[in-house]
Amino acid sequence: MRKEEREAKLKERLQEMKQYENYIWAQGIPYIAGIDEVGRGPLAGPVVAAAVVLPSDFEVLGVDDSKKLSEKKREELFEPIKQTALAVGIGMRDSERIDEINILEATKEAMTDALLSAQKMLKLRCGDSVQIGHVLFDAMKIEAVKLPQTSLIKGDTKSVSIAAASIIAKVTRDRIMREYAKKYPQYAFESNKGYGTKAHYEGLAQVGICPIHRRTFLKNLTDI
């Protein structure tokens, strides 16, 4: 495929992914937050959420569900998204909090923090009177957030705001896990990011759990 053809396809894909945002923008709601999380399934590390508010003229090509993109591509898109977005917020909950209240509730707390952080940035950049008017989630809702919300099944493949948030959350968490890999090298966190791979289980068998492991996720492993 030629460069021109590839770029045309990416532009077409971007327009497809802006359909929900375009519908909401057309109703006179200029500030939409897309929210997504990463890290609900791993045995170790935090759950990380991101909230992203994009301008209507957002044109960064290649933004899609982070799971569809290579690590290199996610890293390439990370800064352009942050630089182009009107606001970006991050929220996270560590393994201790996950064990305390369960992964779903910890995820909701992280998402709420991400949204509040994005709102603060939006006010700083666009004025104190500016408010996020609608929130797009990937297959979730947050009851504590009293804003109009739309929950989209596979939202990170349908909404550019959610997709952008998925990339921000994924890159942020991957960087955290690579740092943890330096502190706890026995588990190959640099490659598995805390998920239950063979190398990770081998590390658990050899040295047991470390402080960032989720004990509630490992309670049925009788050999640890």
Your description of this structure?
- The chain has 224 residues and is α/β, with parallel strands linked by helices.
- It has one domain: Nucleotidyltransferase, domain 5, CATH 3.30.420.
- The chain contains nine helices and five strands, in the order H-H-E-E-H-E-H-H-E-E-H-H-H-H.
- The protein has a five-stranded mixed beta sheet.
- Strand 1 and strand 2 form a beta hairpin.
- Helix 3 crosses helix 6 and helix 4 crosses helix 5.
- The longest helix is centred in the middle third of the chain and has 24 residues.
- The N and C termini lie far apart (51 Å).
Q: What is the multimeric organization of the chains shown?
A: single chain
Order of SSEs = HHEEHEHHEEHHHH
Kindly give the count of domains. Answer: 1
Tell me the helix content: 40-55%
Largest sheet: 5 strands, mixed
